[in-house]
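Sharing a chain and its predicted structure for anyone who wants a worked example. Both blocks are below, sequence first, C-alpha cells second.
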Amino acid sequence: MRRFSLIVSLILICQLVMIAGGCGDGYWPSRDVNGQAGRSASRPGGVAIVDLDEVARQLGTDVALLKEINDGQASLNQQLKTFQASLQEKYRQKAQELAARPVGDVSNPEAQKQQLSQWERELNLQLNEAQRTAQKELTDYRQRLIQRFRDEVVPAAQEVADQRGLGVVLTKNDTVLLAFDDAHNITSAVVVKLRARRAMAADAAAASNAPSPPATQRR
C-alpha cells in the first residue's frame, strides 16, 4: 500500500504543481473575474503544502484506487488464462493432426518433432505478446485512475491556496520537502472542500435520478 501511495505522490508532484522550467519552481495560474489565466503583478507569496497520500486516505480514495487496479489486473489475468488455454488447445490439435497423418506423409519422426517445436515457439510468441499487451493496458489503466484523482484534487487545492493568498502549491514528499511549517499545510482544507464537492455532486445526481411526481400532483 505504501508503495502505491509513493507512486501517486511521485506522479502527481510534477503534475499538481504548475511548472516553470521544472518541478522545483512553479505557480498556480489564477483566474481573473473573466476566468482568464494569469497572475497580476502583485503575485501572492507563500507556499501551500498538500499531502496527497493523506487526502487519498481520508477520502478513501487510496482503497478505492487499489481495488480498481486489483480488479483490472484480475480481469486481465483471467483473459490471459483463457488465451493460454486456447493456445494449448491449438497445440494439442496440431499434435493430433501430425500423428494422424499417413506414415508416408511424415516418414521421419524427427521432422514431426521439429514441426511441433516450431508450432510451440509460435504459440509462445503469441502468449508473450499478449502478456506484454496486458501489462501495458494495466499500466495505462493505473495512470488513468491516478489522473482522475489528480483532476479532482488540483482545482480544490488551487482554490484553497488562492483563498489563503498562497502562490505556490507543492505536494508533501520526502525527496522534495525537508521540512515545512504546519501553517502552510492545506491538506485538511482540501479534504473538506473535496468532501463538500462530492456531497453536492451526489445530491445533484440523486435529484436528477429521482422520479418525477405524477401530473395530478403537479397541478
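Comments welcome. Residues 61 and 149 are 8 Å apart (CA to CA).
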